[in-house]
Structures are given as structure tokens and as C-alpha cells.
Amino acid sequence: MTQWCYDRAMVRLLAAMLTLAALGCGRIGYDNDPVIACQDMCPGTCDGAVCVLECGDGCLEGIECPPGIACRVNCESSGSCLGGVDCTQASSCEVICQGNGSCLGGIACGLGPCNVSCMGSRSCTGGVECGDACACDVECSGASSCLGRESCPAGCESGAGCSSEDPVCDVCAN
Predict the structure, then answer these.
(1) pTM (2 decimals)?
(2) Cα separation, 120 vs 13, whole angstroms
(3) Residues with Cβ < 8 Å from 8, sequence gap 6 or more?
């Protein structure tokens, strides 16, 4: 019986040591290193600490940015990102809708800063929801883009889009 108790104690000690080693290596909690977090969580590529999701030739299904890290989604070709872009869990988000008819499925921002460029003709017509973002910039420069379906933080509307240029519209640092 004594040997069995000794073996169980050794297993617990070994498990505790492995957990502490993992914490020390930054794989659990990432030691506050956003680059390591990006490398571990991003389904695309990392540009430093930013998860980059390229949708040059499609992304017909919805795109979901990983939680807790910065995210950039490039919807470059015509009809790309049709299933929408979900940035609600990202620490910050940038979505570039360059292709004609891109981002038709809508874009949902989270609480962090959100920057959306709707440059393609008829892009972002599914709407941009960034009313809860601490700063939101939506540029609707493409012909017939957005169609007024952007939801900005209160008082931060600017012609065709949203702007965080006014200090009351950028509360990220507060």
C-alpha cells in the first residue's frame, strides 16, 4: 500500500512540474507575448502579433477571427468574404473589402478598435456592426458600398461611414 501512495504522489508531482514548465515556456498564457499567441491561434499567417486571413480567391464561408488577438482580413477578389466576417472576439480588427461585391455577409466588430475599408463597388452591403467598439472607422468609398448599413458608436457617424477622429469616439485608451 505504501508503494502505491508513493507512486501516486510522484505522478502528481510530475504533472505539477510539467504544468509549471509549460507556463514557463509561454505555451499556457503566452507570457503576455502576443506574437506567440498569434502563432498558436491564427489559422492564417502572422504579421508580428496580427493574425492575417487572406481571402484573395474566395472565403465563401464565414470568417471568424481568433479570440484575444489582433486580426486583419483581406477580401481582395470580387465576391470574396460572402459569408461575413466575425471579429467579435478579436482584440482589434481590420477588414479590407477591396473586391467588387466583397463582404456581402456583413462584418461584426467586437469591443476593441475596428477599421473597415469598403473600397470595392457594392462592397459591405451586408452591413458593418461596430456600435460597441471602443473606436470604429468605416470607410465606404466604393460605388454603392455600405448602403447606409453601418452601425457606428453613438455620435460617430461621418457621411458614408464611421469615424473615431473625434476624441469622444475613441475611448480605447480610457
Answers:
(1) 0.80
(2) 59
(3) none
